[in-house]
Amino acid sequence: MSAVLEKGAPKASAPAMRPRATARAGPQRSASWKAALLPIVLTTIALLYVAVALLVPLAAVFVEAFRKGVEHYFTSISDPEAWSAIRLTFTAAAIAVPANLVFGIAAAWAIAKFDFRGKALLITLIDLPFSVSPVVSGLVYVLMFGLQGWFGPWLAEHDIKIIFAVPGIVLATIFVTFPFVARELIPLMQAQGREEEEAAVVLGASGWQTLWRVTLPNVKWGLLYGVILCNARAMGEFGAVSVVSGHIRGSTNTLPLHVEILYNEYNFAAAFACASLLAFLALVTLVIKTVVERRFLKSQR
Amino acid sequence: MTISLRRPSVLPGFHLALGTTLLYLALIVLIPLSAAFLRTFSLTWDQFIAIVTAPRVLASLRLSFGAAFLAACVNAVFGLLLAWVLVRYRFPGSKVIDALVDLPFALPTAVAGIALTAVYAPNGWLGAPLAALGIKVAFTPLGILVALIFIGLPFVVRTIQPVLEDMERELEEAARSLGANGLQIFVKVILPTIMPALLTGFTLAFARAVGEYGSVVFIAGNMPMVSEIAPLVIISKLEQYDYPGATALAVVMLLASFVMLLAINLLQGWMRRRNAQERKV
Fold this sequence. Notes:
The structure holds two protein chains of two kinds. Chain A is an all-alpha fold. Chain A is 78% helix and 1% strand. In chain A, helix 5 crosses helix 17 (268-300) and helix 6 packs across helix 10 (166-177). Chain A is globular, with a radius of gyration of 25 Å. The relative contact order of chain A is 0.12.
């Protein structure tokens, strides 16, 4: 019996929990009952762990959000301050995601389609924002543009506000989501090789035509995947944005920061109501991501 | 004479693409990060050492790194278990569980933070039974551990999964037919194969946990010397307009990030070589 058969086995006839390993070969089936029990034990532990570590906190968000009733829930999320926070969250994501998308495509084109010195170093530097603490990411922008920062006095003179204002929030969001699209595209475009693009160029296509008609259609699922993850992080970022925002209500509060303020005011039901919007967004992200992953696997076959 | 950095190619757009990449990288990442380092040069070495070895700072660093290490250990064990179950066993809902593993990536950290606090507070769903047993989770260092375990959960699962999927089952069967028992097969056949991936996942989870802020601040209680993490010390220094203090601590955290990034790169290189070797054999 081969692995192919095993995967193709009709699902309807499968018992509730059929360990693949024991379903395979004849002689092993008669092995001790201990071996048959192991998959059940391991699966049970894993499921319990997922339930405690992931499902319980997720459920808590929605239960706490509706603790004071449906009416209170809708009052909380239709509050003007909540709306201004939602608007700012979408604005920041609407700038950060396209910016990092363009950068990701440029970086992947340079890295995957050409050979040059220092390529490995460049890839490492692109990954850098992932390993920097969000608080430090916010701090470096304060050091650049804050009143005590390098450009602070000049900016103050020209009445331009970056820190404790929307531009700072956008910059911090761009920083923390910087690598998402690039790191999805680079390995994918490297694996695709250069032959198709070279053929297109030899046949007379311009660089932009080649990118638009050959490269991007080939990597569209990977691209979408990167954009979705980038967007989720952009809308949910807390630490970096918290440092540069100044927490001015109705003006520089993103939705995660609004959740924090409500929570610190012991307005728990409202905090969880706003948090439930973000949790819902996370669930939508997971669904889209799963669908894209499946399409992606299909397109690679 | 011009020195070319690259090998010739018929494809256009190299200079535009690389130029855009480098400019954007410099403006968004490199120049701001270098600001932190250049700012610390305004301190003397003795001042710098005095700031980063102050008892409150040392306690926060010890807590951030210690809790991150413990959380990464827990995630290594349970992440391996979860990856194994998802790859090897088929059960109803396994696809849903597989998708849910990424929840900590998708859920904003502040939401995770208040949700975990509600669950583990003394009157929470899990906090109440634990309190009855005399275990206090929320507002103690244990709460920090819980939050860091949550946000690090996907890393180990996602790095091990593809390796387990590619693994040749024949090796295990050969070992079994030669008389090895389950434990021996795990320790001598499976573990060595997945070791690079396991270590990579561990380091990724550790790196993420060291700098984590949003999920921790709500559940930690934030008592100086007891449950105050290093990123929070940076924030409280900033709020007191102690820019040199905040920057000095940020530089220590950044140096730690660089070391971890280097370790991750080396581990991934090891993983690739290992996989390439196996394909050759």
